[in-house]
Each structure stands twice: as structure tokens, then as C-alpha cells.
């Protein structure tokens, strides 16, 4: 009798404590950097941190080649400017799939494990207006059809990453929620398409952006137990993540898709370039998020049903991301541009510390600073000009180098420009005001970077590899003809 009830309880517990599907945590890997860490180094970094899912924004051949044989699940991306053509031409969709998916999957033993094709990169972002809306669903349908023709539609799902501003929620958080009115029709088409093919809904959740726009506290954003709760939809919310997630669930339910799987396609906290963007706060946020995801508690509207997958935004800092929405945009990385951990967090793979990229090859230990022996009356003009090109987000208000004094901030700008231009002597001229030094001007809080040496031969092996395949194929065909 006792045995029966214990096993019944056990079964009960098993059913109700295991999630319906295994949750997993991946990262977004963007490459908008002047000196990107070489793809093989990034793959090593992923492996040493046991990260087994990665979401890309394009289908860069060097990146896909570096991922081959790694068993890392990959989302390849289609840039927004491809959408028009992919909507209007089946042929274009067929060749996109052939060139950027099929080729890597049927690459013998060392294939790349492509799981999703992301059609567009947040094509419905409010700031794009209706630029991409008319083409997105048509492009997704054509890509789906192309995958089916290639017999890959069971293996590879087609998704469309949606931005956090696809939804509208009143500033007082208790008003009615809905899709942005201009998007309502497109979103319903998208959901119908996803549902038909068993694909999940990819959406960005951004507690950092919500903090900027809604009347909520930092503690609520950072998963602090002591945060003042908010009411929404007759439930009580203790953190910003749950509130945003359930906003999505509510809207999806309202339009008839209450059970569709949700993937959090981008979530993170920046570390520089704005008030409240710091490594300390990012660490608190990320630890809170990971604890929450791995607890399997889910949210008030989807209890015990956490997101299918969660992709951290982002793996690395990118010094060429657009700063239209803020200087923090270049500082979303868990790691700095050169693969060094900014803080530590257990991503759920069992290690408390993140592992840094190893044997990164830098340019020489040289910096460009302002020459204090010169007349510096026009130095600021030169610095401003340097900053048009180079990344000066750290010396902007709220940045980690904002309070370094004049003219050290001028040196910061000069050095950014100099590194971005591969330390060429001409790039440290600044009308005679620049001086090359071997003394590191960095302080505790403000790092004067040295760029990565990207002219390394290893980086170009992939080129060589592709040329060899082409050459061998041509020779083979020639011999058949002969
Ligand atoms: C999308 O493609 C379809 C099929 O070719 C075409 O009929 C439609 O006009 C295209 N949409 C737009 C907005 O161009
Ligand atoms: C993907 O395929 C298209 C069509 O063949 C091609 O133009 C494009 O360069 C490929 N690569 C990327 C990164 O999109
Ligand atoms: C929230 O805002 C809406 C409209 O802005 C208003 O009608 C509603 O009364 C507000 N609710 C609360 C609880 O303040
Ligand atoms: C969105 O479309 C659905 C279905 O057509 C409709 O019921 C709903 O009222 C629309 N919502 C908005 C905000 O336009
Ligand atoms: C913001 O929230 C606080 C705390 O609940 C409240 O006192 C204040 O009135 C709210 N401000 C606005 C503009 O809604
Ligand atoms: C929030 O909900 C709780 C319980 O449902 C209720 O007691 C409380 O008054 C609500 N607070 C507000 C501000 O509506
Ligand atoms: C930053 O955080 C503080 C609390 O530490 C908060 O009062 C402030 O509103 C936040 N500012 C922004 C812009 O997020
Ligand atoms: C960068 O790498 C190239 C190729 O390996 C090498 O020739 C060059 O000396 C390196 N530059 C520096 C500054 O180390
Ligand atoms: C100051 O520097 C700017 C940018 O280099 C330059 O265009 C301008 O002519 C300089 N002004 C003077 C007075 O030297
Ligand atoms: C800059 O600000 C940080 C923290 O706010 C402080 O620790 C540091 O001493 C400041 N540096 C200077 C040069 O004022
Ligand atoms: C450097 O600091 C000075 C004094 O705080 C300021 O006026 C100037 O705009 C700063 N320059 C740059 C490029 O940030
Ligand atoms: C820096 O060097 C890399 C590798 O040689 C090159 O691809 C890049 O264009 C160079 N950047 C500049 C600004 O010269």
C-alpha cells in the first residue's frame, strides 16, 4: 500500500516537476565588429563554456565552417534587405537555402547542425516603420517551401524574430495589451504560418529597455526578492521578465494561439554606455535570469513551462553596432570584444565561472595618446572627428570612461581611432597632436583597448578550403568529360 502511494507520488512529482520540453540556454553571436575574434576562436570559446546553441544574424561561411562538426545547434539568419527578393522569387529562396543551409548540412561527417532559419532580423522593429512588413511572411513561406524541396523541413524550422516593441502595453502596466496596431494583421499571418509548421515564436524580451520606458524599479528588473510587485491581468508579478513574457502570452492567446511555443530570441543587460549599464548590474540580472530559467517555475500564465529556449544577447561586444537607440548597444556582451568574461554566471552547464578565450592574438602593445607638449586648443575638434569613425561610447555620459579628465578623454578617442586603423602610424597623426606610446594609459575602470590582429593566416584557411573544393570539383568534372 505504502509502496504504491510512494510510487504514485513519485510519478506525480516526475510529471509535474519535469518541464514539458527541456529548456536550454544559447547565445547570440553577432559579428558587427571592426576586428572580430576569429570564428575558430569563438567556437572554442563556446565549447569551453559548454554553450550548445548559437543564433547568428547572417550565414557567414567562415562562421558556419568553424561551427561544423561542433554539434552546436545553429540558427542562421537572413538579413532584412534580402526579404523583398525572397518574397518575390521562389528561385531566390531555393538558392538561398542551397547556398546557406543545404551545403553545410550535407557536408558529410563534419556537418553544421542548423536548427532554425531566422527570416529577417527583427524586421518589425518600430523604427523600421513598414519597410519590411509586406515581404516578411512571403519570404518565410518561400524559405519553408525551399527547405521542403531540399527535404530539410523536418530538421530545420523557419522562424521570424520579433522585437520587444511589437507589443504595446500601457505605461501603468495594467492597461490592455495588444500588438502594435500597424502589425496586427502581419502578426496573425505569422502565427498562423508558425502554427501550421510547428515552429516556435521567437521574441526579444528586454527588461533593460522596459526600465527606460516604463514606471518600474531597477530591483524589479533585476529579479530582486525585495522588489515591489506589479499586478497584471489579475496576477501578481515579482520581476520584469515574467511580466514581459506574460504580456506576450496574453497577446498570443487573445488572437487564438494560447499554446504556441515561445523562444526568447534575445535577452541581456549591457555593461557600458548608459546609466545602469554596468558589469555589476549585468551580473545580478544574468544570475537572476539563469536561476529563474533553471528553476523551471515558468511564469504565472505558463507555470512550469519556461521558454523552449533562451538566447542571451550577446556573446561578445561589437564596436560597429548602430548606436541609434543608445551608446549601450555596443556593450551587450557576456565577454568583451576579445573574449574575456566581464563577470561570472552559471549558464546552467555546471560551471560557476565563465572561461575566457585563449591565446588571442593582439596587435602590438602600443597606444595613441595626445601629445601634452603641443598646443591643444583644437584637440577636441580632432577627437570629435576621430569619434565619427571610431568607437567612443565609453567616454559618453554613463560610460566607463566618462569621468576621465581632459585631455585623457582626447587620448581615448585618438587611441580608438588608431586601433581601429590597425595601428598605422598615419592614424595617430591628428594634425601633429598624436603620440604613439608603449605605456598603457588604462585605469582600473577605463580600458584603452588594443585591437585583435585579424590579419592572421588561419582566418583565411576557409577561403583556401572553398577554393580547393571548387578546384577539385572542376578537375573531377573535367576528367568525366574527358
Ligand atoms: C510578394 O510576393 C508575391 C508573390 O510573388 C507577390 O504577389 C507580392 O506582390 C509580393 N509582395 C510585395 C509587397 O511585393
Ligand atoms: C546566401 O545565399 C545567397 C543566394 O545564393 C547569396 O547571395 C548569399 O551571399 C549567401 N550568403 C549569405 C551570407 O547570405
Ligand atoms: C491605466 O491607464 C489606462 C489608460 O492609460 C487607464 O484607463 C487606466 O485607468 C489606468 N489604470 C490604472 C490602474 O491606473
Ligand atoms: C487584431 O486582429 C484580430 C483578428 O482579426 C482582431 O480580433 C483584433 O481586434 C485586432 N486587434 C487590433 C488591436 O487591431
Ligand atoms: C510610478 O510608480 C510609483 C510607485 O508605484 C507611483 O507612486 C507613481 O505615481 C508612478 N508614476 C507614474 C507616472 O505612473
Ligand atoms: C493586486 O492584486 C492583489 C491580489 O489580487 C490585490 O490585493 C491588490 O489590491 C492589487 N493591487 C493593485 C494596485 O491593484
Ligand atoms: C537607474 O537606476 C536607478 C536606481 O539605481 C534608478 O533610480 C534610475 O531611474 C535608473 N535610471 C535609468 C535611466 O535606468
Ligand atoms: C599580425 O599577424 C600577421 C600574420 O600572422 C603577422 O605577420 C603580424 O606581424 C602580426 N602583427 C602584429 C602586430 O603582431
Ligand atoms: C580643428 O580641427 C578640425 C578637425 O580636424 C578641423 O577641421 C579644423 O580646421 C581645425 N581648426 C583649426 C582652427 O585648426
Ligand atoms: C570615476 O567614477 C568612479 C565610480 O563612479 C570612481 O570610482 C572613480 O574614482 C572616478 N574617477 C575619477 C578620475 O574621478
Ligand atoms: C573631454 O572632456 C572635456 C571636459 O570634461 C569635455 O569638454 C570634452 O567634450 C570631452 N571630449 C570628448 C571627446 O569627450
Ligand atoms: C585592418 O587589418 C585587417 C586585416 O588585415 C583588414 O581586413 C582591415 O581592413 C584593416 N582595417 C583598416 C581600417 O585598415
Automatic annotation (TrEMBL):
Membrane topology type, per the record? Lipid-anchor; GPI-anchor
Domain X8 residue range list: 366-448
Q: Which Gene3D superfamilies match?
A: 1.20.58.1040, Glycosidases
As recorded in UniProt, its EC number(s) are: 3.2.1.39
Q: Which UniProt keywords apply?
A: Cell membrane, Disulfide bond, Glycoprotein, Glycosidase, GPI-anchor, Hydrolase, Lipoprotein, Membrane, Plant defense, Signal
InterPro entries recorded: GH, Glyco_hydro_17, Glyco_hydro_17_plant, X8
* Biological process (GO), any one: defense response
Listed under catalytic activity are: Hydrolysis of (1->3)-beta-D-glucosidic linkages in (1->3)-beta-D-glucans
SUPFAM superfamilies, A to Z: (Trans)glycosidases
Group of enzyme by EC: hydrolase
Q: Does the keyword Repeat apply?
A: no
Entry superkingdom = Eukaryota
Q: Which Pfam families match?
A: Glyco_hydro_17, X8
Tell me where it resides: Cell membrane
Point out the signal peptide segment: 1-24
Gene Ontology terms: cellular component: plasma membrane; side of membrane
GO molecular function list: glucan endo-1,3-beta-D-glucosidase activity
Family stated for the protein in its record: Belongs to the glycosyl hydrolase 17 family.
Protein known as? glucan endo-1,3-beta-D-glucosidase
